[in-house]
Please model this.
Amino acid sequence: MKDQITVGGSKGAAEVDPAAIDLSEALVLLVDDNAQNLELIQAYMESMPCRLITARDGLEAMQLIESSRPDLVLLDVMMPKMSGFEVCSKVKANPNTRDTVIVMVTALHEVADMERAVECGTDDFVTKPVNKLELLTRVRGLLSLRLLKKRLAELSREGE
Model:
């Protein structure tokens, strides 16, 4: 038996199969100041059906987040101009972007760094060196959830 998600009340309820989510609708922003890391993550992500855009620092990331509204951001922590912590805090503080899913990609392993990332509002972590299977599994799950939430919001607006 497949898992179904019922959206709406008894009148006009719709069922959505999470496995049927079309990830090609999703936009993912990859952010890393190290060109080799960015290329590696981009190569891993190309097996996903989503659209990809890239940024090389926190300021460029903020511009793309505000203009392109990605569904998910894979965000390096240690960057010049603006750290991943700062980007995450700004995105989550803005009502227009706070639903953006942020996954911190970090070589930091200290508990204090992880606590700081959680306080900034990150949705998940991937540690460096990045494991391809772990990255794709986390991204697929988080993107599916994000797209389901967007669909629920659309159905809710249509029902009003």
User: Anything to note?
Assistant: The beta strands are 5-7, 14-16, 27-31, 51-55, 72-76, 101-106, 124-127.
